Amino acid sequence: MTGLEKYRWDLVNCERCSMCKWVHPWKTQSHRFAKVCPSVSKYLFDAYSAQGRFDVIRGLLEGEIEVTDKVLEVIYACTLCGGCDVTCKFSRDMEPLEILHQIRIELVKSGKGPLPGHKAALDSIKNYDNPWMQPRTRRSNWARKLKAKDLTKEKAKILYYAGCTYSYNPDLQIVAQNTLSLLLKSGLDIGVLGNKEICCASPVLKVGEEDLYHDFAKKNIQTFNELGVDMVITSCSGCFGIFTNHYPEIGKMNFEVVQGVQLLEKLINEGKINFRKKVPMTVTWHDPCHMGRGGEPQNIWNGTRTKWGLSDPPRKRNFGANGVYDAPRNILNAIPGIKLAEMERIREYSWCCGAGGGVKSAFPEFANWSARERIEEAKSTGAEALVTACPWCELNLGEGVKADGDKIKMLSLINIVTEALGE
Amino acid sequence: MSLPKGAYQVLEDVLGPENISDDPAITTAYSYMWLLYITHAQSGKYRPAAVVLPSSTEEVQAIIRIANRYGFNYIPVGSNLLPPTIPVRPDTIIIDPKRMNRILEIDEKNMYAVVEPYVSYAQLQAETHKIGLTITTPEAGSQVSVVANNMFQGMGGMAHKFGYNRGILGVDWILPNGDLLKIGSRGVPNGGWFWGDCAGLNLKGLVRADTGHCGGLGMVTTMAVKLFPYPGPRIFPCEGANPNFVAKFPEDRFKIFLIDFPTKRKVCDAMYDIGHCEIGAAVHAEGANWMLASDCASVEEFWERWPDFQKKWKNILAVTIAGFSSPRQVEYEEKVLMEIIKEHGGKLVDEELYKVGYNAMGEAFRTGLSNRLYRPAGDFFVMGGFGFDSLDHTLKSSEIFWPIIEDAYKRGLFVEDTTKSDWINSYQMGHFSEVEPIVYFEHDLKAGEAFLLGYIKTITDALAKKMHPSWPLGAMNYITGPAMCNYHELVLGLKKLLDPRMTSNPGYPLPETNPFAPPPEQEK
């Protein structure tokens, strides 16, 4: 577990303040929605919080305990949403999220991880370049009716990277189609990679398969650089988060990464998108973890801790507040008829949908529980629809909405935008 | 680290298999405590034999009865912050109250709330603020348990106005023998929760004491706490994004004044007068290291600013004024405060320092920055000095601990602090006070030893001067007791009476034997 040695300072100095379990006290608005960590909220034992996982990891490093099935469960029953990271860093200079990633990498290196539930998606990514066990040849089907440039044959300034789920899931392809269609109509010089697009490998990194992740990340960076594009746009928050928050340490990226909603907001501000139709609806916005706190540009740091815990060289930390938060809200507020009713846990304190970090495949019941929690919060605002811009969130929350008797609608932001355009 | 044969099964039958675990992957998370590691070198030595998650008073009662029957130890915890929550002997289980997380009642008219042990201050305040009521929150942070903190000290920013540790009303308490004892108005049939006292013997002091019994006398499962008027916004007025928050209260009702005095003596004199005039909502002299830490987003930022800040922040008093009755109250109290400042030669700080200390006002109403206390180094704690006594007593305490601190930082063991500025709290309109000198050190045994020896020295030095010494927690009572009418013998007697098997967090409120006593042969 040598990769964890650099975090020893964090592991031994956690003072169990419990901030990692809660929304910051000054941001707490109710008893009901005061917690930020889905894992400890569901499983209750401290071991399922960042503080408890620190203790477990320290115990592993010290040889006090061994890797068992229960240890694996404790480590993997976490969506890696980063809520703990945000609340911890308010007061301490620790890196819970990095450590929770690193322990998974170490578990894989030692042949203990990932979990059997992760195997199908990993094999699929290895064999088909996507986690959904779909053939490469069908990847570009979603874009058949759109006249986007094929960037394997011609040049464009912008690459639209659909991501695996928006490419293959028949219920969600409409998101990629509506986004690309809108961008094309706005006159942007944009193209796609078609069947040559491969997985961003976020699901691979999240379960600790570092080597495989590196292969995909290097390949993607090389491909995007070789295309000579200025910008890579993705509608998938999972892809966005991995591109902005993890790829930079893999290699130099000669392009800007943009979430689809950021570009939409820009086009609205520039007057290139005009809404013609009123959409009379009260909605609430769910901040996807990997677009919000996990979508911050990565601050790469390779250094050591010195006396008093100082970092050498001085480290710039990610606090989670610089993710994409305003763009979707500005878009919703610009749509005639839409009334935005905010939930209590928003922006860097957003409650995770429950699907991330390999939880959906290994702990489906936990994923559903977390989704139900979010849906309860969404319903408490009086909103008719829960809106987001992430396929993982939409699928998982969508399942929860269905199980709850469809008392609230689950919508993609781009689909509301498309409706408001009156097309 | 295992329970007596059959005990686990009996506990599981009561709680359900999902609410108990003896798996090391679970119990390890309750075995380590940063401060305990350096001071006692015991952390991680004993994992709990199991962790249990009761959901009701009845389940807690069953757990404690099973512990008595099978003869194992138990530690009831709240949010699990302090060293007493870590097992230091085998055959100990942790009673984690996470399933007991309900606010059972908020009585607006009679101004109290009834809560279970895993309700945090932030949760309770978020609900009470909606109806114009509040509760003072502790410096440990608003994320800690209302019940556990009230049993420990129940102190907080507003204790100047609202009183120190006076918030406990009706209580349901499972005694170490498993009996349910209802105290306060709960002890009277149909008495409800509203009153902390009642006819007959009042045992509230046993729940709370000076620093509580730390789970050594059973577990409180439900507590009513007093609420106070709150003239602030219904949602806590926090602006900004992580890590830069500002608590902006309406200026007609809330103001903070940061006043620089020439000496510590003058600070205390001003605090006395503020109390005499019965003004102010929160009144603290703010220590420089903590104040800067509260304003820094990283340890690096702290260390960049600390050398210069030490020159600027010495004897600064923070006074928060709130218009509980009307904006005119703020106007009146401000006028009185200005007179006091003038009389004691104080002056308002410049804009730069005001910006640093401004959030002390938000902190007074809901602690949210206090965990930044840990920021300047790996470890921190208070170097004795906890004399809950007069403001004058805090000054004398300060004379005791600063030479000890200075010696340690000159040897490179503590973070240097040339300001010698203390965190002095006024309680109950200045009628009494306490002082906390915060020291920072590395996570190593040498620094830990310096801290522990220094801590004990502050106690023995205070006793030698016939002063009220620092925080007597656990074994420390054996040092303070003999100098103070042997109160420790009374406490131990009560422990033995209520917990004859010594199973309820055995080292607390004090251990059965004196760990500082010389070994028998030496005694001879």
UniProtKB/TrEMBL annotation, chain A:
Pfam family, one: CCG
GO cellular component: plasma membrane
4Fe-4S ferredoxin-type domain residues: 13-89
Molecular function as annotated in GO: oxidoreductase activity
Domain spans labelled Cysteine-rich: 159-242, 325-397
Coiled-coil regions listed: none
Superkingdom in the source lineage: Bacteria
PANTHER family for the chain: HETERODISULFIDE REDUCTASE RELATED PROTEIN (PTHR43255:SF2), IRON-SULFUR-BINDING OXIDOREDUCTASE FADF-RELATED-RELATED (PTHR43255)
Protein known as: (Fe-S)-binding protein
TrEMBL record, chain B:
Source organism superkingdom: Bacteria
A GO term, aspect molecular function: FAD binding
Pfam families recorded: FAD_binding_4
Domain FAD-binding PCMH-type: 44-230
Gene3D superfamilies: 3.30.465.10, Uridine Diphospho-n-acetylenolpyruvylglucosamine Reductase, domain 2 (3.30.43.10)
Protein name (database record): FAD-binding PCMH-type domain-containing protein
